[in-house]
Design brief:
heterodimer, A: 120 residues, alpha/beta, Transcription Regulator spoIIAA, five-stranded mixed sheet, 4 helices, 5 strands, 48% helix, globular, B: 283 residues, Globin-like, 2 domains, 9% strand, elongated
Chain lengths: 120, 283
């Protein structure tokens, strides 16, 4: 089965979603990501969804959930690069992802995590 | 004899009669459309009409399938709309077919009154139906023009301007409805994605009233912008609007609001790490 690669950069993790996110793949990603955070003690996660063209309410909630789980494991999550169409869809679906931090691109997302770690 | 046969045998006579009639009634159209163009149209329509009449199963006008003529009427109506003709003038084009048709019926009947009456009725019905189709096509084209203009107006009414590096602004003038919000949201979000601006200011100074629906639209837009990773400030909230929002019990939640655009810009600059100093302060 397809798996989304999780890249390690110091104590940050970078997940770039390049394929259509099916429910099964997304759930696998949730498992992998939480396991990886725990294993290396990651302090931050950047989820890049700039290649994602379609989302449904399930995927939207799953991303929000994953981010909450990461926070419980003491890693802050930033969702970056959401496309306009995806943002509109999520708002219309009523999945506003409260509590999830967002940034325009990977660079800004990384800067945000580094900044907030410095403030801690 | 039926209409189809009449058209087959007397096609040329009908056509030349029609063109004459057209020239007579279209004296006041001079300058907008050429004789050659009128003749070309008449020619084309008579040809298609013969085809259409052939499709009738029992040789009555009621069963004629006019779909072959629809394309002709569509292009004809589009040209007429573009040239600024009225619906009356467009209909006259078709209705002027009546006289030459009746002339031919009379000439070809050989004195049989019953046949003349039947044929005249058929011809009359045929021309009426053609006229209705022509006017229908004309109306459709006019509506298409209006729709296109409405759409263009909507696009013109949502200008996204760049105020500073990383700061975009969208001044809204006029009432916000669902349709307009949709376009506004799309334009603004697309521009944010293109420019990677980190702050967007929505200025509602020009919005006359804010009701629950408009407030909801604004909240949706702000949420979508936040999901993309940018910040949004709403500026230009007038006292009456602030009162309405509170009276309606609308929860603006975490949306940052400012009384005017200047305050919003200064907050945006502060957030992007820009400081504005007067010349005296700078030295």
């Amino acid at each position: 089965m397809e798996r989304i690669p999780i890249l390690r950069m110091g104590d940050l993790l970078l997940v770039t979603i390049q394929v259509d996110l099916h429910d099964q793949v997304a759930m696998q990603l949730q498992d992998d990501l939480t396991a990886q955070i725990e294993r290396i003690g990651a302090k931050g996660v950047v989820i890049d969804i700039s290649a994602l063209e379609m989302v449904d309410s399930f995927i939207g909630r799953l991303i929000a959930d994953t981010s909450s789980m990461a926070r419980v494991l003491d890693a802050e999550t930033v969702v970056v690069g959401m496309r306009p169409a995806v943002a509109i869809t999520l708002v219309e679906l009523g999945v506003a992802m409260p509590g999830v931090r967002t940034a325009l691109n990977v660079e800004k997302g990384m800067a945000m995590l580094i900044q907030s770690r410095r403030e801690d | 004899m039926n209409l189809h046969e009449l058209f087959l045998t007397e096609k040329d006579a009908i056509r030349s009669g029609w063109v004459q009639e057209l020239q007579r009634v279209s004296g006041n159209l001079a300058g907008r459309v050429s004789q050659a163009d009128l003749m070309k149209r008449a020619d084309e329509m008579v040809g298609l009409l013969v085809q259409a009449l052939k499709s009738s199963a029992d040789n009555t006008v009621g069963t004629v399938d006019f779909t072959v003529l629809d394309r002709f009427f569509d292009t004809f109506a589009r040209d007429r709309v573009e040239q600024g003709f009225s619906s009356e003038e467009t209909a006259t084009f078709v209705f002027s077919l009546k006289r030459p048709l009746f002339d031919q019926i009379q000439a070809g009947s050989g004195g049989d009154a019953k046949a003349v009456a039947q044929l005249s009725w058929d011809a009359s019905e045929l021309v009426d139906r053609l006229g209705l189709r022509a006017v229908g096509a004309f109306q459709r084209m006019r509506e298409a023009v209006i729709e296109r203009q409405q759409h263009e107006l909507l696009e013109l009414s949502t200008p996204v301007v760049k105020l500073w590096k990383d700061v975009l602004a969208l001044p809204i003038i006029g009432t916000l409805d669902s349709n307009r919000t949709q376009i506004m949201m799309e334009t603004l979000l697309t521009r944010i994605a293109e420019t990677e601006a980190s702050i967007a200011i929505i200025d509602i100074t020009g919005v006359p009233t804010v009701d629950t629906l408009v407030a909801q639209h604004l909240i949706k837009t702000v949420t979508a912008i936040r999901l993309m990773g940018a910040d949004c400030i709403i500026s230009g909230v007038r006292p009456q609007i602030a009162q309405t929002i509170v009276h309606l019990g609308v929860d603006l939640g975490e949306v940052t609001t400012k009384a005017n655009l200047a305050d919003a810009l200064s907050l945006a600059l502060k957030r992007t790490g820009v400081r504005v100093l007067t010349a005296a302060e700078a030295t």
